[in-house]
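Hello,

Our lab assistant flagged a job as stuck in the queue for most of the afternoon. It eventually completed. Since we weren't sure the result was trustworthy after the delay, we are filing this so someone can double-check. Below is the sequence as submitted and the structure that was eventually returned. Let us know if re-running is recommended.
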Amino acid sequence: METAYGPHPPASRVPVALRAPFSGRTWRELLYLLLSLPVACVMFTYAVTMTALGAGLLITFVGIPVLAGGLIGCRGLGTLERVRARALLDLDVDSPEPIRPAKPGLMGWVGAVLKSGVSWRHLLYSLLHFPWAVFAFCFSVTFWAVGWSLLLYPLWQWTFPSYLDQPGIQLWGNGNGDGVYLDTAPGMAIASGIGLLTVLAGPWVIRGLTQVDRVLVYGLLGPSPLATRVSELESDRGVVVDTAAADLRRIERDLHDGAQARLVALAMDLGLAKEKLAQDPEAAAKMVDEAHGEVKTALQELRDLARGIHPAILTDRGLGPALSALAARCTVPVTVSVDLDRRPAAALEGITYFTVSELLQNVSKHARATSAGVDVWHVADRIMVLVADNGQGGASTETGSGLAGLAERLSAVDGLLVIDSPPGGPTSITAELPWRH
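-- returned structure --
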């Protein structure tokens, strides 16, 4: 079966529950639990030894760098744990922020290590992971071994009378040789049935155990939420600065190549008209008339430029009328629907306007559509914008159409851009922005 993305793999006829005990994921997760015990022993022993040694030596100056060295070692072991989780649990955890000493030298480095919350979280992981690893190892090995042993019991039941001098697994006994044994066909069938249920439940039990490991690795060995948010804000600030710089360059270019050049030419024409005013009044009047036309053109260019910076209709009347005026300038018929019970913050109102403006420009230039629609509404704490057209489709953030830059600008204000534009159309582009007023 062929799809747009190539051959479609045939669906397996074996139920998931029957395939799970033999799946690669199950065996990788079991291997993770088995390896966790020796790894946790090493980490726990190292963490306790270095912490106790450093704390014991705090009475002298040596204890401080020893404790810092212990924390650095825990960070190194945490790096190996992230690699192990990535390889066996498919858990990709980013590396935490590096240590940045405020002062150069050994003491600056030691102080930065001791002040780093990441370092202490790695130490906490080394201490907490050990008891959990012991429990998970014992439970998973016991559960897995019992399940497979019972399932295959009819194949190895003969070992009891041959080597242990008893007919089978003893369920009950009084110590005098009397008891209940699994040595009959129905008994062995029941044991195999219990074993089958245990084996089938094994992958889900193992998966549940590794969920705790995932929480520990993600919560203690990854970057802190605050550091992640700071990094995102720094990236978003860079996007905002770049966008503002690009807009300033565009305005400067438009002024230099448009209105400024036209006004310079106008000044020269008026100067020539002034010189000819006494000698040839008719030619001077003609030149003044032409200059008057140039003034109108320059004013129109300045109005268009001002509209591109922030349209007056948006400030005075809000998004509804502003978007209607924007739609009227589109090359295809556009229906506009704005359902807002109140106006959002001016900055977000402007971003919403220019988002719709850029999307409608794409419709005019690239969509080959015969109609389009703009819907804006308010849901909870979000402004929702939907721009749809019946054009040829194929819009993407990877085609250089400007949508990638638009997505970055929306991301800088905690916004989101979602594109649904299959080849052949239609196209629906949804933008989400935070609601503030």
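-- support follow-up --
The delay was a queue issue, not a problem with the job. The result is valid. The CA atoms of residues 71 and 119 lie 6 Å apart. The chain has a mean pLDDT of 79.
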